[in-house]
UniProtKB/TrEMBL annotation:
PANTHER family: INNER MEMBRANE TRANSPORT PERMEASE YADH, INNER MEMBRANE TRANSPORT PERMEASE YADH-RELATED. It comes from Streptomyces qinzhouensis. It is found in: Cell membrane; Membrane. This is Transport permease protein. One of its GO terms (molecular function) is ABC-type transporter activity. Its main location: membrane. InterPro entries: ABC-2_transport_permease (IPR052522), ABC2_TM (IPR013525), ABC2_TM_bact-type (IPR047817). The keyword Mitochondrion does not apply. It is a multi-pass membrane protein. It comes from the Bacteria. Belongs to the ABC-2 integral membrane protein family. The chain crosses the membrane at residues 78-95, 107-130, 151-180, 192-214, 226-245, 285-306. Pfam families: ABC2_membrane. Keywords: Cell membrane, Membrane, Transmembrane, Transmembrane helix, Transport.
Length: 315
């Protein structure tokens, strides 16, 4: 896998993850430059060293393939805002055009945070779920990773953390594009609330990469299409990307807002609403609901993903 991505074969293993012999040396005595063994390292120190090495390995691959990463990350959000915020208004079919440019601008304000949310979600799935399914599949790279001198679950955590870093980069790339691509007269009203931005985006990235771990250890490589059709697409369209959760109260049966209630099962709705709280002044779900629920989803996905990961490795 790493050799195909531009790294030499010997670099496909993280430092300290080169096999059982290397693992034993790393977990045991540290070797001084003179070759004389130093004082033994504790298991915790060895695990932290292996974790850092695994993350550095993933980020090195990302750096060497950053152009491909940026293009893959930007393309879908760019096309989304280009069609909805530029092409549609220009041809007279803009969403909210019944209210003139003010209505179209209001839709743009709602859409931009949703586009960033989608970018974070897709990055979590691509960087963890798809890679994980390949490593458990034909590449079998996972066999190299689990030889690192650390617990098996820490190998999965390293992938989640490196994926979260990629999610942060995705958000930083997509937000400027989503904010500037629009037709003349259509301008999203963005007001950054830095306290929310700097806390919610990292939490969202962790939640989505934890979801990626769960999906990647649940679906076989041959079933990736099923994952996108029955999991990813419903998350996107019921995740508040194109609309505000507060407006769904109008969709009701017998006075019960069934859709507004149903989408509460979707983790993406909390990310989209949190992004609106961080980027705009429009109405949104209360933050005292967004943060605890996102933390709960993160813990749930990570716990189930780590359980599945251990089962797959030991099977």
């Amino acid at each position: 896998m790493a050799a195909a991505e531009g790294l030499p074969p010997e670099a496909s293993r993280a430092p300290g993850a080169s096999g059982s012999a290397g693992s034993a040396r790393s977990a045991g005595a540290a070797v001084a430059p003179s070759g004389v063994p130093g004082p033994p390292r504790s298991a915790g120190v060895a695990a932290r060293s292996a974790l850092a090495a695994l993350i550095r390995r993933d980020l090195t691959v990302l750096r060497k393939n950053f152009g491909e990463f940026a293009g893959r990350t930007i393309m879908q959000p760019f096309l989304l805002v280009f069609i909805f915020l530029y092409v549609f208004p220009v041809i007279g079919q803009g969403v909210g055009s019944g209210g003139g440019t003010a209505g179209e601008s209001a839709f743009a304000t709602v859409l931009v945070p949703g586009v960033v949310s989608i970018a974070v979600m897709f990055q979590g799935i691509q960087s963890v779920a798809i890679q994980m399914s390949q490593e458990f599949g034909f590449t079998r790279e996972i066999e190299d990773r689990v030889q690192a001198p650390c617990p098996i679950w820490l190998v999965a955590v390293a992938r989640v953390l490196s994926g979260a870093v990629q999610g942060l980069i995705s958000a930083a790339l997509v937000l400027p594009i989503a904010a500037v691509v629009h037709a003349p007269g259509v301008r999203p009203e963005l007001h950054l609330h830095w306290g929310v931005v700097l806390t919610l985006i990292p939490l969202s990235c962790l939640a989505m990469t934890a979801l990626g771990l769960l999906l990647g250890t649940t679906f076989e490589p041959r079933n990736i299409g099923v994952m996108f059709g029955f999991v990813v697409l419903p998350l996107v369209f019921l995740g508040g990307t194109y609309y505000q959760w507060t407006e769904l109260s109008a969709v009701e049966v017998g006075g019960f807002p069934w859709l507004q209630t149903l989408v509460l099962l979707n983790p993406l709705i909390y990310i989209s609403e949190g992004m609106r709280a961080g980027f705009t002044d429009v109405s949104h779900m209360p933050l005292y609901v967004v943060y605890p629920v996102l933390i709960g989803f993160c813990v749930l996905f990570l716990g189930l993903g780590l359980r599945n990961f251990r089962r797959r490795v030991l099977s």
